[in-house]
Amino acid sequence: MRSPISFYDVQGIAFGILMCSLTLLFLKSAGLVTGQLAGLALLLSYVLPLNFGTLFFLVSLPFFVLAWLKRGPDFTLRTIAAVVGISLLAPQLARFISFDSLDPMVAAAVGGSLGSIGVIALFRHGASAGGGTILALVVEQKTGFKAGWFQLCVDGAIFLGAAFVLSWDLLLVSFLGAAVTNMLIAWNFDISQAQRKPAT
């Protein structure tokens, strides 16, 4: 059982929201996608007349029920806060940050690295960045299969859909960016860390 939310958690979740939002700025600016529900929302934003933030919130809604059942109200409320924060901040960042030139490989590497930092920050403070990460945490707790590796598997389905929207070169670069994110999570995060109280 986690303690009531503290300033330590608030700043960690806020930092995670910022890093995840910057990830999406890099990817969207380069015409790339990523995995999990964020990737699905990003992909849909290329073909539907809705922005990423709206789509990300809508596709995350069913997974809040899973979070409530499997991880409890505290984790669910923190995750809702993270999803709402990313949904609101990611589209707004594009109003203030633009790129005259952005190589897709650079966008994938930087975005993938920022994404791993953001997701780990949210994990460590009892939240997640959406439905896929909720499911990944549940799987890791039950089976020991690393959350990052699980997410990499789920990404395959997202990229299969992206193959009908993106060119093959952008699809490959997008996959490399998602691989960076998930490998860094797998190498740098242990699920047990999320259960530890911070030192005081």
From TrEMBL:
<dbReference type="GO" id="GO:0005886">
    <property type="term" value="C:plasma membrane"/>
</dbReference>
<feature type="transmembrane region" description="Helical">
    <location>
        <begin position="47"/>
        <end position="68"/>
    </location>
</feature>
<feature type="transmembrane region" description="Helical">
    <location>
        <begin position="144"/>
        <end position="164"/>
    </location>
</feature>
<feature type="transmembrane region" description="Helical">
    <location>
        <begin position="170"/>
        <end position="189"/>
    </location>
</feature>
<keyword id="KW-1133">Transmembrane helix</keyword>
<feature type="transmembrane region" description="Helical">
    <location>
        <begin position="75"/>
        <end position="93"/>
    </location>
</feature>
<keyword id="KW-0812">Transmembrane</keyword>
<dbReference type="InterPro" id="IPR003740">
    <property type="entry name" value="YitT"/>
</dbReference>
<dbReference type="InterPro" id="IPR051461">
    <property type="entry name" value="UPF0750_membrane"/>
</dbReference>
<protein>
    <submittedName>
        <fullName>YitT family protein</fullName>
    </submittedName>
</protein>
<feature type="transmembrane region" description="Helical">
    <location>
        <begin position="105"/>
        <end position="123"/>
    </location>
</feature>
<feature type="transmembrane region" description="Helical">
    <location>
        <begin position="7"/>
        <end position="27"/>
    </location>
</feature>
<keyword id="KW-1003">Cell membrane</keyword>
<keyword id="KW-0472">Membrane</keyword>
<dbReference type="Pfam" id="PF02588">
    <property type="entry name" value="YitT_membrane"/>
</dbReference>
